[in-house]
Amino acid sequence: MTPRRRILATALLAAGSLAVSSASAYVYCGFHDRRYEMRAYHFNSEFWVDLVVAQSAKWDRVHPLFSINRTRSRTTPVGQDGQSVIGWLTEADLNRHYGLSWAGTAGWTVTWTDGTCGRLLESDMFFNPGITLFAPQTAVPYNLGFQEIALHELGHAATLDHEDRGLAVMTAGGVVSDVLHNDDKVGWIRSAAQKFNPLPTPIRDMGVFPIRNGRSSKVYASLSPTTVARGADVAIRDFTVENLSSVFPFEGPTFRVVLEETSSGATIEIGTFSWGRFEPFSHWSGDLTYTVPSGTPPSSYRVVAIFQGRDSDATNDRAVLGTIRVR
Questions:
Q1: What is the mean pLDDT of the segment spanning 266-271?
Q2: CA–CA distance, 58 with 188 (Å, rounded to integer)
Q3: Helix intervals (H) in 180-243
Q4: How far apart are the first and last CA of the chain?
Q5: Residue 116 to residues 120, 155, 297: CA-CA distances in angstroms?
Q6: Which carries the bigger pLDDT value, residue 14 or residue 61?
Q7: By CB neighbour count within 10 A (0-12 exposed, 13-18 middle, 19+ buried), where does 264 fall?
C-alpha cells in the first residue's frame, strides 16, 4: 500500500462521598509491532535530548516502546528516508523540507504509515529551537514548557492523535502539564494492544491538578471570594483529581487542603477530602467549600491541595489552586 503522511502540531500556547468519572476512549491511528527506534540530532548540549528521553520514559511506563539514540551533528536528516529522527530545525529548513512554519507552534511531528492507519513506518519530530523552559507544573494557569511539548510530540510518534474530551497532554489546545493523564494512558494501552497486547504495569499514582476540562477548553481553578474574612467560607472551583494508574484502583486516597502563607510558607489546614476507593482510569472534577479558621492571621495565602500517602510519582501530589487574602 502507498505510505500515508500525517502532520501533527503542538500549539504554542472534608467532603463526603464524591462521584468519580471514567476516562473516555482515545483517538489513535496506526500501530507499532516492535520497539521504536528514534535518533536525536543535536548540535550543542545534550541537555535537551536528556529531557526528551525523560519524557519518553513516561510513555514507556504505561507500555514500553521508545529507544532513543543520539548523534552530535549540525545537520539533521529530513524527509522520508526510513529513519525516525528528532531534531531542532530552523524556520527556513522547516519550510524548505516540509512546507511548515514555526509561526504559532512549538513542535511538529510528521509520520508515515503503511496505507491508512497501518503500521507506522517513520516519525520525524522537530522542535522550535527558539523555545526555552520551564514552567513549574503547579503554576496557575500552566505555561507551555519544553517537557510538555516533548511529551505531546512523543504521543504522536506512539500513534496517538489529539484528545479533548478529557484532560490529556494530547490536547489540541494549550497543554495541561508534563504528566500523562488518564486519557493519554487509555489511548496508548488501546493503541498498543493492537499488536503488543500489553500486560498491566504496577503503578499507583494519584494526582491533583488546578484545572478541569470544559467543552473544547481548559478551565483553570479559581477561588471565591479572593478576599476572605476570618471564619468565613472560601469556594474552590474547577480542579481535578485523577487516578493515573494504568489499571489499578487506589484504596482510600485522601487530600489535605491548606492555606500556605506566601511569604513564610507556614501552613494552616482548612480541611480534607477523600474517597473509599478510586477506580483506575478515572477522575473527579468539581468544586469544594471550606471555612477559613477564625484564628488565621491576616495575610496573603496560597490555597493548596496535597495528596496524603505514598504513590509512584510525587511530582503531581500537590497543586496550588489560587491565592486569597485573609483579613
A1: 96
A2: 11
A3: 182-192
A4: 70
A5: 10, 18, 63
A6: 61
A7: exposed
Residues composing the chain: 327
User: Residue 198 has what DSSP assignment?
Assistant: P
Task: Name 228's bridge partners.
Answer: 326
Contact 173, 163 (CB under 8 A): no
Closest by CA to 62, choosing from 141, 167, 160, 172, is: 160
**pTM metric for this prediction:** 0.84
Amino acid letter, 309? G
Helix residue spans in the chain (DSSP H): 47-62, 91-98, 146-157, 182-192
Q: What's the mean pLDDT when you consider all of the chain?
A: 87
Greater model confidence, 222 or 141:
222
Residue 119 one-letter amino acid: R
CA dist 250 and 253 (Å) reads 7
> Where in the chain are all domains bearing CATH 2.60.40.3880?
206-326
| Nearest of 321, 280, 104 to residue 182 by alpha carbon | 280
Across residues 5-14, what is the average pLDDT? 57
Q: Where in the chain is the domain with CATH 3.40.390.10?
A: 3-192
With a cut of 60, say whether residue 134 has pLDDT above it: no
Provide the CATH number for the domain formed by 206-326 in this structure.
2.60.40.3880
Angle formed at CA 187 by CA 182 and CA 189, multiple of 5 degrees:
95
| pLDDT value at residue 327 | 95
Alpha carbons 296 and 293: distance in angstroms, whole number: 6
Domain 3-192 has CATH 3.10.180.10: no
